[in-house]
Amino acid sequence: MTNRYGWVMVALGALMTCVAVGAMFSLAVFLEPMTRDTGWSRTAISSAMTLNFLAMGVAGFGWGALSDRFGPRPVVLIGSVLLGLGLAAASRATSELAFVLAYGVLVGVAAGSFFAPMISAVMSWFERHRSLAVSLVSVGIGVAPLTLSPFAAWLVSWTDWRSAQLTIAILAWALLVPAGFFVRPAPARTPEGGAGSAEGPSGGVAEALRSPQFIVLALTFFACCAAHSGPIFHTISYAIACGVPAITAVTVYSVEGLAGLGGRLALGVLADRYGVKRILIAGLLIQALAAGAFVFARRLDEFYAIAAVFGFAYGGVMPLYPVLAREYFGQRILGTVLGAATMVSTLGMALGPLGGGWIFDRFGGYAWLYIGSFALGMGAVAIAFAFPPFPRRAELRPA
User: Fold this and answer.
1) Domain coordinates of the chain in residue numbers?
2) Diameter over CA atoms, the chain
3) Left (φ > 0), alpha (ψ -120 to 50) or beta: where does 130 sit?
4) How far apart are CA 216 and CA 211, in angstroms?
5) Which of 21, 63, 234, 397 suits a disulfide with 356, CB 3.0-4.6 Å?
6) In CATH terms, is domain 206-387 a member of 1.10.260.40?
7) In which element (H, E) is residue 221 found?
């Protein structure tokens, strides 16, 4: 499909994921001023982020199913309103429990409304350059820590954390609600030249979620996220433990983020040219090797070099899972399938921070975290080799 509005949808998807993920991850900026102002424990405040991942994953499954049935526009509009409400309620919270419920649950549920519905909607507009289009939408996730987080830090430097969070809530409403009205489903395609691909298999959702294709997709997604979540969360602390100054160690994360933007674009283009499965496997292998290489890092330049490769790999592979789901299951139930796979992947994301903390407390260092991440990454590579062949176009056409 060559309709130019597909690229407008790509821009809308990138904006929405950037604002939603950026608002969620800005909690790290508010952690210190919140504990100082309220006396709440860091553990209690940080638990909101764990709940964010879990709520986003579970809700993403429901949002994806709703987008398949009613279209993406009402889903992202409701999510936009809920995101602002969650941030506003968190800014007014007077207890730890009230904050965790508002920020951890409501914001997490709202953030889950953008990824699967918008990725599904964008792919319905493209037959060519599909991997690139999805990669460009996911650029919003990579840009989020480089935009919303610095903006949140600037706000906190000028005012208190409550006013800063309320400002971000208002900004989310101002950007996302108007953008939601421009979201459109793709025009219906004629059977000639790809209708089967748009419709997908004739079986229902239950059949799809029990299929070997989905099981391999979900397990690969889970192992991939479990492999990179620990290094993403703990590498700054590891660099500090190696003697890198704290303010400089933070830049390692920025290098990962910038490299991830390049990875999304490069692997998206390569997947369109050489096939999504082989590029995914190559990216997973590079991710596993880079995660294991952190064990040997001691100096800042070594952290930068490994972080660049690691960020390029994990940033590049993440947009390829929706493309695989579209190839296996078609457009009709894509939101539901992608939401279910994302829900499984968030369990892997939740393992890294917890596992890395336990390893450090138990062994006094992070070496086993990176060894474990390497093993999980190689496991993801092994699982990915089990992907079945794609269905032939003729098999996908409605009877």
Assistant:
1) 7-186, 206-387
2) 65
3) alpha
4) 9
5) 234
6) no
7) helix 212-241
Neighbours of 399 (CB within 10 A): 3
Q: Which pair of structure tokens corresponds to residue 329?
A: 């299951």
Place of tokens 């590498």: 235
Half-sphere exposure for 90 (CA within 13 Å, toward CB)? 34
Distance (Å, whole) CA 316 – CA 228: 12
Domains 7-186 and 206-387 share a fold: yes
Task: Please report where in the chains the tokens 């996220």 appear, as a residue.
Answer: 225
Look-up of token digits 């090797």 = 289
Q: What letter would DSSP give residue 103? A: I
- CATH homologous superfamily of 7-186 equals MFS general substrate transporter like domains (1.20.1250.20)
Which single residue is written with the structure tokens 């999304």? 264
Task: Please tell me whether residue 183 adopts helix, strand or coil conformation.
Answer: coil
> 10 Å Cβ neighbour count for 209?
17
Q: Tokens 């009230």 label which residue?
A: 98
pTM here? Answer: 0.76
The dihedrals phi and psi of 3, each to the nearest 5 degrees, come to: -60, 130
Q: 6-10, 155-159, 218-222, 243-247: which has the highest mean pLDDT?
A: 218-222
**Mean pLDDT value of segment 337-364:** 85
- Tally Cβ neighbours within 10 Å of residue 227: 28
Tally of residues, the chain: 399
Q: Residue 158: count other Cβ atoms within 10 Å of its Cβ.
A: 9
Name the pLDDT band for 289 (thresholds 50, 70, 90): very high
Instruction: For residue 166, give the nearest of 95, 94, 87 by alpha carbon.
Output: 87
